[in-house]
Design brief:
This protein is an alpha+beta fold. It is built from three helices and four strands, in the order H-E-E-E-H-E-H. It is globular and about 35 Å long. 21% of the residues are buried.
């Protein structure tokens, strides 16, 4: 049994990231920033852009990536056909459930616009 995020559910190419960045809808929270664009395919996709400028330590960047992937994986059946690019913002450390809840709210907020 495979519990990871499938390859089809990821944004992998730089041209796909550029497509979302150019015409996407932005939503900002305290810890996250999400850009989303409607997609014609059948499943939502996730892209991660966690910068060294925002979180210098790899441990912190990896934690944000882990939380984002897991939140997306658990909720992707409830999300419509959108491309999401998730970015971390500078913030004080908080627990993972707080990060996950805020990211889920941003997913819902950006898809309603």
């Amino acid at each position: 049994m495979f519990f990871g995020l499938a390859r089809e559910a990821k944004i992998l190419k730089s041209s796909e990231y550029t497509h979302v960045f150019k015409g996407g809808t932005l939503a900002r929270g305290k810890h996250w920033q999400v850009i989303a664009k409607p997609l014609k395919a059948s499943k939502p996709r996730l892209g991660l852009a966690i910068s060294k400028k925002v979180h210098r330590l790899a441990v912190d960047r990896n934690r944000f990536k882990r939380v984002a992937r897991e939140t997306f994986r658990l909720q992707q059946q409830h999300l419509d056909n959108w491309d999401f690019v998730v970015m971390a913002r500078k913030s004080k450390p908080v627990k993972n459930p707080v990060l996950s809840a805020e990211l889920l709210d941003l997913f819902k907020k950006v898809t309603k616009k």
